[in-house]
């Protein structure tokens, strides 16, 4: 008997195509047209009257010319329209979206929707109801809603998700399903690979960099000169979503590539743009905020050496700013100084920097053998010891050195080479006040700190700092002297803080112990300085400068939230750590570390399989 076996060939099923559909049910071509039309309607609405009375600031009663919040809606609507037109491949606009248009369209639609609806809510709240809205306001609301519906209907590849475990608890299943929905929602903002950039002549690339820097000056000047709270909040909404849209479009990456090829030109251009800021102001009102932003951002950049490069968690860094300020104030001719010394400024600033460096070495030498939380606790203790010490050096509880809680007051204005920083000057027809004079001086100090940071980070010692930050044990095994390397970082960071402190003493006229606390509603303090480094991006130059500017500008402009600033500050940090732990401006290494999963394909396509 013969048995015959039949073998059936089993063919593996082909991998399923990823699901591509929008959140809302509109055909793709209609969704794209709807989003673009919504952006155009939003632009038109900015030229219509939004209210009948000028009681709301910004004068939104004029036809044919935007004012106040209308400018912000106009910008967001223009972004939505341009990205929508670029998605059609229109010649001359495709360069706007090298990484794809759809994620940028979605974020631009959110910018327009959030700004317009916030604006109408603010108008209705201030004037006493929606009855005060003119037809132009309803056009803006409808236009932004149309654009948002179209943007949310654009198709995208949905990432694969796993079903919830039926044996799990009800809350566990809810949490799992919520996580699946969040992953699906994030899939709508996943970008593709950027198209290769065209090779441009060097002078064209430099002109593009100059144009971007000029645009940055315009945005910064507009933000710092907003005259009322509603306008500043609207500016934050538009700038936040707009920046995200531009980044998803791939323009930020293109500009970053250009600035990397022309680093020296970018550095000079950036400081030239910053130096032009005082000439855009008619008085010293906003130059005051500008010089304080520079002080705060410069100290944050010095802390970036300690935290961002060397990986040392310093919670008492503001004490080094105080040491520099007190040291310079004591030798600058203040009548309340017990020393009675009046040194030239270049000597006073060196005294401030040297005093901070000495304190950095004295504090760092016995403590830098500690790691992690233990080092953080010690530095926190040093910050409080400094504040309490200068508070008690009042002639009663201790020697009469710092005048106790009254501090060192009446610090005279600087006079360098016959130029009185406390007087008003006229330069090329522009009137430059006291704070604008100190703005230029602080800008020079910031330039010095940037150059020192850049040269240090690219040197052998900078590479040693990074090695210790990544793995101190492995770095020491490779021959790096960990203690000496960390001590250099600690001393250099303290020295840079002392430079800024010497200028701060003359800007504020008075230095008191209350200015140098760990946490306080008014920056600079150690908590805000550390947050500026983390917010901006550790290990970068522009990150702490941007983070410091935001963390000083936002509390200064939103005075009505003074009672809730620390709460908002903590909430913002939690959200930042959850959604963008690498900071606003992060280097490639940190992006890979924090988003290692995101580097893999978001969906299982044929190529991925």
Automatic annotation (TrEMBL):
The keyword Transmembrane applies. Residues 1-21 are annotated as: Disordered. It is found in: Cell membrane. The chain crosses the membrane at residues 30-51, 71-90, 110-131, 137-154, 206-225, 231-252, 264-280, 286-308, 315-333, 345-365, 374-393, 435-453, 487-507, 527-554. Keywords: Cell membrane, Membrane, Transmembrane, Transmembrane helix. CDD domains: TM_PBP1_LivM_like. It is a multi-pass membrane protein. This is Branched-chain amino acid ABC transporter permease. It comes from Streptomyces rhizosphaericola. The lineage of its organism: Bacteria, Bacillati, Actinomycetota, Actinomycetes, Kitasatosporales.
